[in-house]
Structures are given as structure tokens and as C-alpha cells.
User: What shape does this take?
Amino acid sequence: MSRNFKAILLSLFVLSLSGCATQLSKKDYTDLRTEAPRSILVVPAVNRSVEVTAPDYFLSTISRPLAERGYYVFPVHLVKRMMEDDGLNDADMVHAGDPQRLGKMFGSDAVMYITIERWDAQYIVFSTTVTVEMKYVLKSTASGQTLWSNSQKLVYQPQNNNSGGGLAGLIAQAVVAAVAKAAPNYVPLAQQANMQAVSTKGQGLPAGPYIDLYQKDQADF
Assistant: This one.
């Protein structure tokens, strides 16, 4: 993990839909454990945000969290290219389609469908707030049924360490906020959101077959 990534995580102001402020009920994992998928195919995300580049950036952030939960993840960029070659280049159409067809095409046990609800930066006075929000749905390629779903929202506000006051301090704050607005770094925020979405106890995914916790985490999932 890079030093810059660690610094960003340390300064995160997090608003999580699965946060500790509201205790959520443990999800029902019966169908997921019954089918016990070993491999996950991640299809291109549906983009509901105002940022047209969001799906491409997001795609680079999802494989690692799923792999660290113990699942084999098909190479996301190769999958995207193969689907485009097969005429499946519309994310909305893919999401509305049959997961069983995708299972036959790629040989995967499950398909992960992700919708990007927010991927934006808002400038308010002397502060910029960067927000990412996603919805996740995992469907079986055997039955076509939903095995798991979750959502995650994270908000980042750059820390202002300026100790000066007066006009100079206000100008410094405005410059920091303007830079964050002009070039917000969504990727580390999306990485953290994905990690929380799939690993939070009682809400995320149970351990897959490629880590030692497999079938040993029933108390948490």
C-alpha cells in the first residue's frame, strides 16, 4: 500500500451505509453458502453519476477486495474487451440480461453487477467534499438468483492543516479546496468503499475457498 494511499485513508471522513451509527441486521447467507461460488465475473458498472469516466476508473478498484475475500476474479479489463467484441458493450443491457448466459460464456460461478450512484466532488465555500456511492449485486450463473447484495457510500474531505488566520488563511483554504475540486482522487476512496462493502461482518461476503477462513466464519457471516 503506497504512502499516499495510507495518508488519504487516514484523512477520510467516512459516511458509510453500513457504519456503526446504525446497527444493521445480519444478512441471510443461506443461498450464497448453498451455492458456494468459487469464481466471480465482474461486468462493467452501470453509471448513474455525472462523471462519464467513473466506470473505467472504478473497474480497476474492485478485483483486489474480492480476491482478498478468497474468490477467483476474472480479469476485469479482459472481460470488458471480450464482452465488447461479443456486442455486449452497453452496461445497462448487460445488467438486465441473463447471468446464466454470462456463466456459459466465461465459466464463472457468479456475476457481480455494480451500479455507481455517485462519483462527484462538491465545492462549498472553502471546502471540497468527494463522494463515491455504489450498489453491489451478486447473482448465480446456475440459477440466476441473487445471492448477495450490498451498498456503500464514502465521503472524503481533505484535511486543512493551515494554522494561519485572516485573509491569507482563507486564501490557502480556497486554494486547497479548488485543487481537490479540479483533480479529485476517486480511486483510493473507491478502493476503500469496495473493501468495506465486501468485508464488513454480517454485511459483506463470507470468506471464499481461496483463503484459510473458508467455512470458518459462520459466526460473522
Observations:
- The chain has one domain: 26-199.
- The domain at 26-199 is CATH 3.40.50.10610 (Rossmann fold).
- Residues 15 and 21 are 10 Å apart (CA to CA).
- The chain has nine helices and six strands.
